[in-house]
Amino acid sequence: MAEFLKHLALERNFSAYTVKSYREDMTQAIDYLQAQHGPKITVADLRPRILRNWLAWLHEQGYARSTIARRLASLRSWCRFLRRQGKLDHDPAAGLRGPRKEKALPHFLPAEGIQKMLAIPQGDTPLSRRDRALLETAYSAGVRVAELVGLNLEDLDLEEACATVRGKGRRERIVFLGPQSLESIHAWMPDRDTMAKAQAAQALFLNKNGTRLSVRSVGRILSKYVGPAGLDPSASPHSLRHSFATHLLNQGADIRGVQELLGHKSLATTQIYTHLSTTKLRDHYTKAHPRA
Q1: Burial class (CB in 10 A: 0-12, 13-18, 19+), 180
Q2: Whether 32 is catalytic
Q3: 211 three-class SS
Q4: Active site annotation includes 285
Q5: What CATH number does domain 111-286 carry, 1.10.443.10, 1.10.600.10, 3.40.50.2020, 2.40.50.140?
Q6: 22-69 confidence digits (pLDDT tens)
Q7: Catalytic residue among 129, 144, 212, 242
Q8: Is 90 exceeded by the pLDDT of residue 269?
Q9: pLDDT tens digits, residue range 184-238?
Q10: At residue 285, does pLDDT exceed 70?
Q11: Is-contact 249 130, C-beta < 8 A?
């Protein structure tokens, strides 16, 4: 498995977070197979029947369909890798079918509520200024939370009001920073320069100890402000990204442009947001059309 994970990190350019997810998925599968078939089982012993039993066990354990689909995808990738390496003469996972994914619409927040939330961190302290810059940037740029905390000073072009982020597969793209985002970043910069420790000299967003902010910390920061703004307390940092896309489409933005801004490889991934726009149009139609 170590060779496969190294391949993901170095040759596929997967992020450390993605590689960690693969490691957890594969470790769980291997633990199950060894518990059921003995510690000496090897990949050459794998057969479709054994893997179907594993999938059935995942269902019995109550895992969500999305989790089961992801774990099956990890196993398939591993088997394909082993085939290419000549360590398998067959692919035991090739014919397996995973569960149908649930078609849940993205959770987004109303624009008015976001405006209220962004106005809350107004205190005259370094962390208040950081929170304002963090939330403004997340909503203005529509970035993933890992992209947000991964921003470095060298990634910013404040004169052009944009930044370079590295998304999934370390693909780079340009995102835009609105006037409020730029203003809040400028206000945060003197505090950032004072707080930054040597190991985080380039990081844009820092924690109270002067090191790079973590993904989990962004969630905790957001949770401080959604309640007072009257927003759904279950909102996550990704809700801001969903809101970014939904609000752009609702205001008439081109879907391919939104795809580029989000860094989606496939237009089909972006199209889920059009369902939200269609729902809003249907509401307007129902309220306005005399025969609706």
Answers
A1: middle
A2: no
A3: coil
A4: no
A5: 1.10.443.10
A6: 999 999 999 999 999 998 888 888 888 999 999 999 999 988 888 999
A7: 144
A8: no
A9: 999 999 999 999 999 999 999 999 999 999 999 999 999 999 999 999 898 999 9
A10: no
A11: no
Query: 129, 130, 212, 241: which one is catalytic?
Result: 241
- CA–CA separation, 46 and 25 (whole Å): 17
Any catalytic annotation for residue 284? no
Please indicate, yes or no, whether the overall pTM of this predicted structure exceeds 0.70. Answer: no
- 111-286 has the same fold as 2-84: no
Longest dimension (CA), the chain: 71
Copy the structure tokens of residue 64.
Answer: 């969500």
Q: Which residue has the higher pLDDT, 84 or 292?
A: 84
Nearest CA to 153 out of 204, 197, 206 is that of 204
Q: Is 167 helix (H, G, I), strand (E, B) or coil?
A: coil
Q: Please identify which of the residues 22, 139, 225, 273 carries the catalytic annotation.
A: 273
Domain boundaries, the chain: 2-84, 111-286
Q: How many CB atoms lie within 10 A of CB 85?
A: 11
Q: Catalytic: 100?
A: no
Separation CA 65–CA 84 (nearest Å): 29
Q: Which tokens go with 1? A: 């498995």
From the candidates 65, 83, 107, 238, give the one annotated as an active-site residue: 238
Can you give the pLDDT at residue 278?
Answer: 60
User: CB neighbours (10 Å) of residue 129?
Assistant: 22
217, two tokens: 């910390």
Asked about 6 being catalytic, the answer comes back as: no
Measured in whole angstroms, the distance separating CA 179 from the mean position of its chain's CA atoms is 25
Q: What number does CATH give the domain 2-84?
A: 1.10.150
Whether residue 63 lies in the annotated active site: no
